[in-house]
Amino acid sequence: MIEKGKIDARQFTILVVMYSLGTSIIAIPSTTSTYAQENAWITVLLTSLIGLMIVFLLNQVSRINKNKNIFELFEYVFGKWVGKSITVLFLTFVFIVAGKNLRQIGDFITTQVMVETPIQVIMLIFVLTSLYAIKLGIEVIGRTSEIFFPYAFISLMLLIIFVAPQADFKNIQPVLVNNMEGTFLTVFPTLGTPYFELVVFLALLPYVNRVGPGRKAFYIGVGIGSFLLFAVTLMSLLVLGPDFSARNVYPTYILGKKISGIQFLERIEILVAIAWFFTIFFKISINFYVLSLGMSHLFQLKSPKVLSTPLAFMIMIAGVYLAPNLIAYQNFLAHDLAPFAGTFGIVLPVLLIIVARLRKKDKRNKRKKKKKRKKRK
């Protein structure tokens, strides 16, 4: 493996949580409410359960060869040239996801926090910060996540606790009576981010100092992230209502503005925004790191840091030109992302497992034939 650094299972858990929250904590309450309406919380609950099944699938892929990352597995299972071709396609997927993440934080800051600031400036700040993290390596990224995770987690928990008194359960009634079709049809688009995107962690799992606990950490990380996504979506429905949540692109941020009457806590929506900055920073950094790792493997470079600087500016360009405006970008997230991400997050892992098992079975049969020939001789 190119990377020599290691992280422990705890750091891996935190990275998975931060990645799971990333863009989702702001976007999911709105996208699910648009189609599932008052049943959006059920949609998020279903996607959370399916998300854990996806982790099971990804952990099975990692068992093919625990010492190889996903790029090495492609060649190990499919052969050198087919494996390299799949690596190129996979890296294209990671590149688009990284650009998407960068665009999301740029859109949020320029529409909600710093409206006079050009989006390119915001994106440049984030991509340069991520570039610095990539240069320092996976160990530093893991340690840094331990510093910022408590702040992000506590901020979201405070948001949930302080808006809870304003909850109105009439906003989610009647349960599964109206819009049942939308409730279940929205599950697939919601899986697009973050659950289908979790496949990138197959590139990082071999760098956990003990892979067995790393697989358990994968479940725990997705479980914690899913709980927070569910809780925030439920509170958005209970406090803001399904219509308001659907009409606003960032209902989680609006939810923070609903907190009032607490003297020592004012403008908590800014705390929510900062917590989101941390989570999306780690999501961008992880995608960026995996992209650098894959490119290094593809071109047989000694370090993933070699191509990180040109990749940083390519990601920024992708983020700027991914969609002409916020509306077009929201449509991309709602309709196009899930089928695209599902190809790499579900179909590709299933193919890896099937082909690996067929090849293993073929090797066993060849060994049996050789033994029979030796006995005859």
How would you describe this protein?
The chain has 377 residues and is mainly α. The protein has a single domain, classed as Amino acid/polyamine transporter I (Up-down Bundle), CATH 1.20.1740.10. The protein is 76% helix and 0% strand. The protein is built from 15 helices and no strands. Helix 5 crosses helix 14. The protein is globular and about 85 Å long. The two termini are 42 Å apart. The model has no long low-confidence stretch (mean pLDDT 88).
Structure in a nutshell:
By secondary structure, the protein is mainly alpha-helical. 76% of the residues lie in helices and 0% in strands.
How many domain units?
Answer: 1
Name of the CATH superfamily: Amino acid/polyamine transporter I
What are the low-pLDDT stretches, counting only 5+ consecutive residues below 50?
Answer: none
The CATH class: Mainly Alpha
Which radius of gyration do the C-alpha atoms yield?
22 Å
How is the CATH topology named? Amino acid/polyamine transporter I
Give the CA-CA distance, first to last residue.
42 Å
The SS-based structural class is: mainly alpha
The name of the CATH architecture is Up-down Bundle
Strand proportion, as a percent range, falls in: under 5%
In DSSP terms, counting alpha (H) and pi (I) runs of 4 or more, how many helices?
Answer: 15
What sequence of helices (H) and strands (E) makes up the elements? HHHHHHHHHHHHHHH
Helix content: over 70%
Choose one word for the global shape.
globular
